[in-house]
Amino acid sequence: MLAVIDDPTDLPRTRPAAAALDLLEAASRFRGRVEGALAPLGLSYARYRLLKELRDGKDPCVGTRAPGQRDVPRRSDVRQLLGALERDGMVRRARPDDVDRSTAGVALTALGAAALRWGGFRLEAVVDEFGAAFEAHDAARLEALLTRLEPAPRS
User: Fold this and answer.
1) What is the pLDDT of residues 99-151, one digit of tens each?
2) Is residue 142 assigned to a domain?
3) Paired strand residues for 91
4) Residue 65 has what pLDDT?
5) Residue 53's CB: how many other CB atoms inside 10 A?
6) CATH label of the domain that carries residue 82
7) How far apart are alpha carbons 23 and 1 in whole angstroms?
8) Which range of residues forms the domain containing residue 128?
9) Is the pLDDT of residue 3 over 60?
10) Residue 153 lies inside a defined structural domain of this protein
């Protein structure tokens, strides 16, 4: 019989399990700080990443997942983010097309470029603040752990 655990504090608290939950909590706090730093600029981390990829001329829906890389977003998610960025005046479409809502022909506006620039400064400050808690050997051990936690590549 499978037990249902409604409360994560009910999980077995072996040392590795406790460390895994602590890692989850730390990641959540870090994500919250990143989102909080970007919010005054009208950005979320997903919007920031999309603006950055558009600025760099990359298609955010193309690519393969390598160890240490984030998942490639679904086209529907990108279209939704693009629509929000367009409504907020951060991107514009070179050719308005209700059918093709892809990233082709999308350019950053001056507002989008400024939000990306200032977002980069704010993101760097949060990353530096969290990174200051790590010594070189801590960072190396965390990187090794995260690499071991990566799912195996799909064939």
Assistant:
1) 554 556 788 999 999 999 999 999 999 999 988 888 888 888 888 888 888 87
2) yes
3) 108
4) 42
5) 18
6) 1.10.10.10
7) 29
8) 44-60+72-148
9) no
10) no
Q: Can you read off the two tokens belonging to residue 54?
A: 């558009």
Local structure of 108: helix, strand or coil = strand
Query: Which residue type does 109 have?
Result: T
Phi, psi torsion values for 125, nearest 5 degrees: -65, -40
Report the sign of the C-alpha dihedral through residues 52, 58, 61, 67, in that order. Answer: negative
The token pair at 93 is: 């479409």
Q: What percent of the chain has pLDDT over 90?
A: 39
108 vs 87: CA distance, rounded Å: 12
Please say whether the beta carbons of 48 and 70 come within 8 A.
no
Which residue type sits at 74? R
Domain assignment present for residue 33? The answer is: no
Q: Which of 22, 68, 77, 75 is nearest to 45 (CA)?
A: 77
Phi, psi at residue 95, to the nearest 5°? -130, 105
Give me the number of domains the chain comprises: 1
Give the integer Cα–Cα distance in Å for 48 and 54: 10
- Which ranges constitute the DSSP H helices of the chain? 15-38, 45-55, 75-87, 110-131, 136-149
What's the rounded Cα separation, in Å, for the pair 19 and 17?
A: 5
